[in-house]
Design a protein that fits this description.
- The chain has 356 residues and is an alpha+beta fold.
- The chain has 11 helices and 15 strands.
- Strand 7 (153-160) and strand 8 form a beta hairpin.
- Helix 4 runs antiparallel to helix 7, helix 7 (182-206) packs across helix 8 (221-238) and helix 7 packs across helix 11 (319-330).
Length: 356
């Protein structure tokens, strides 16, 4: 059989692995889905690079990990932006559809790959939208369309590694036919990119590859920040959240380009997440007395986890913010935050770097 195309799968046993309490509570639902998928003997599409794709997924060391705040935040935002009651960060494993994060009443942490809409979404490189699943021959007879939870709409953006492997999707689902406008689709694509970035940061933390020496070059901190803010505006625009950037002269730093881009993107996205819809994030980059990114955002519940970790106040118990703090620490960055802004309840976070 070719490694691409459709493949029918025989019934498979439920895996005996360590499971969270939440997963155990969903066992009866999961077993029902297993049985329904087996009865249907549904064929599934297989990417041409399946072996490499699954290898890349396993190398992420994310399968069967507990929920994490960053991923949970993204599905909440995706659901909000797309007006859909369900949103998932999914991984398509060899024989299962596993959920890293979920918003909405799902009740399980995984399901058989045979019934996964995402099995089709990972075949491409762009967003797949199914306005009405009952009108699409690939999904009309799917057990979760014909039976509980009666899914009628699906939109999924593949989570693509830099090598082109589709690990899974960020997707939204609805119980009724649904359409996305251009802005919503653009935001969903951008959010999927953020998920992929989070997965890579997480991998670096849990596989202890952050210890590798950074490959330093002289870079303009203002340019990097501007690039990341421009990237994130697709999300801000759809939430009616304004992101402003003020910069003057170049702010030269010695940094590893890939790692600094990761860290600045995460710091900026975290500020955007913390800002309610309709709010404002003000970013400023200055070069004196040292290259600094200043982020002004609503005070919320305190400094973000990456900031507390970097300042030494509290080590993050989740891998992604700790990875970001370690990257910034390796670049000699320091941080300070203050809520003492005249006439405002905002908090100002200053991220300072040594000058090149």
């Amino acid at each position: 059989m070719s490694r691409s195309g459709l493949r029918s799968r025989a019934p498979h046993a439920v895996r005996n692995r360590h499971r969270s309490a939440e997963a155990r509570q969903g066992d009866s639902v999961g077993l029902t889905l297993e049985a329904r998928a087996s009865e249907m003997a549904m064929p599934i599409p297989i990417p041409h690079n399946e072996a490499d794709r699954v290898s890349a997924l396993h190398a992420m060391a994310v399968l069967d990990s507990p929920p994490e705040t960053d991923f949970d935040d993204i599905v909440q935002i995706a659901s909000e932006i797309c007006g859909a009651p369900i949103s998932l960060v999914t991984m398509v494993d060899t024989d299962r559809w596993w959920f890293k994060a979920q918003c909405g009443p799902i009740g399980v942490r995984e399901a058989p790959r045979e019934i996964a809409f995402c099995s089709y979404a990972i075949m491409g490189r762009d967003l797949m939208v199914i306005p009405d699943t009952t009108a699409d021959g690939r999904f009309a007879e799917n057990p979760i369309v014909q039976g509980d939870p009666h899914i009628r709409f699906y939109a999924g953006a593949p989570l693509l590694t830099s090598e082109g492997a589709a690990l899974g999707t960020l997707c939204v689902l609805d119980y009724k036919p649904h359409r996305l406008n251009v802005e919503q689709m653009r935001a969903l694509r951008t959010l999927a990119g953020e998920v992929t970035d989070l997965l890579e940061l997480r991998r670096q933390a849990v596989t202890e590859t952050l210890d590798a020496r950074p490959q330093l070059r002289t870079l303009d901190l203002a340019y990097i920040t501007e690039d990341r803010i421009h990237h994130l505006r697709a999300i801000g625009d759809d939430r009616k959240t304004v992101i402003t950037l003020a910069r003057t002269d170049p702010a030269w730093v010695r940094a590893d380009p890939a790692r600094l881009y990761q860290a600045v993107d995460y710091v900026s996205f975290t500020a955007l997440k913390a800002t309610p819809a309709g709010g404002r994030v003000a970013v400023r980059v200055v070069n004196s007395p040292s290259p600094t990114i200043e982020l002004r955002q609503p005070a919320g519940s305190g400094p973000p986890m990456w900031c507390a970790d970097l300042s030494g106040t509290r080590t993050s118990d989740e891998p992604v913010p700790h990875a970001v703090a370690e990257i910034l620490r390796a670049h000699g960055a320091t941080t300070a935050s203050t809520s003492d802004i005249r006439g405002s309840t905002d908090v100002l976070i200053a991220l300072q770097f040594p000058a090149a």
